[in-house]
Structure formats: C-alpha cells, structure tokens
Amino acid sequence: MREMTKKFLEDAFAGESMAHMKYLIFSEEAEKKGLKKLAKLFKAIAYAEYVHAKNHFKVLRKLSENMADNVQAGIDGETFEIEEMYPVYKNSAEFQGESEAIRSTHFALEAEKIHAEMYKKAKDLVEKGQDYTAEKIYICPVCGYTVEDEAPEKCPVCGAPKEKFVEF
Description:
Shape: globular
Oligomer: single chain
CATH architecture of the largest domain: Up-down Bundle
Distance between the termini: 37 Å
Low-confidence stretches: none
Helix content: 55-70%
Structural class: mainly alpha
CATH topology of the largest domain: Ferritin
Number of domains: 3
Radius of gyration: 18 Å
C-alpha cells in the first residue's frame, strides 16, 4: 500500500474509533436522562463508526490470522501506554496542576498495567493452543481497574464498591 493511502486510512481508523467511543458515551448520557430513542440513535451510529473502523483496520492488514500476533499487538499497545504515554501525560498534568487530568491518567495507567499482564497470560495460553482461563472479568466503571473471577469489596485504585463493577 502506498504511504499516503496508508496514512489516510490510519487517520480514518483513528477518527472512526474516536467517533465510535464518543457516540457510546453520548448514548450512555442520553439514557441516564431518559432519552431512550436518542440513546438508541447514538448507539446505532456508534456501531456504524465501528464498522468503518474495522474495515479500515482490515485493509491496513492489522488483523492477523495468528491469534498470538493479535494478543502481542495488545501487549505492545498496553506496554506503550504504561512505559511512555501515560507517564508523560500524567507528568504534564502534574506540571500544569490539572488535578482531574492527573486522576484520569493515574486511573488509566494502573489499569493498563493489569491489562498487559492479562494479555501476557493470554499469549502464553494461545501459543499452547488454549483459551483464556478466567470465567469472569470485572471492570471498575470509575477507573477501569480490571480483575479476574471476582470483584473486590472495594476497588484498590479508586475505592468504588464491589456492586458497581461491570461483569464480562
């Protein structure tokens, strides 16, 4: 693929990905306000943006037939966030005294550390021809803290209670 086309598709993938997430967040807010049909509209269009992003992702050959390669891409992404992205973002927020940004980047950094370890475990299993072992995964909706099998009584990162955790 030519560089210009590749760059444009990568930019389009990023834009469609952000639109997908933005519309899901808008949908959640509309739902909270009792605007069920508006929530449905945001959710439906978010799905369309996901389809666009997925199509671009495939054309860019970012999806491997080898699941271990896909898991490694997850490890690489999480490692970048842990080692480079969030430390710099958090440091900048601290330098500028932006307390909400400090909190947000701290929450993300702590969750990404767990995600990287989970992906490493998954890669080892996939390379042995096995599926991931956790029956359930719980996510804190406040900070993104992630845990297998059972949610803690209180989130160790932000203090959210067990009953708020989302089960997957």
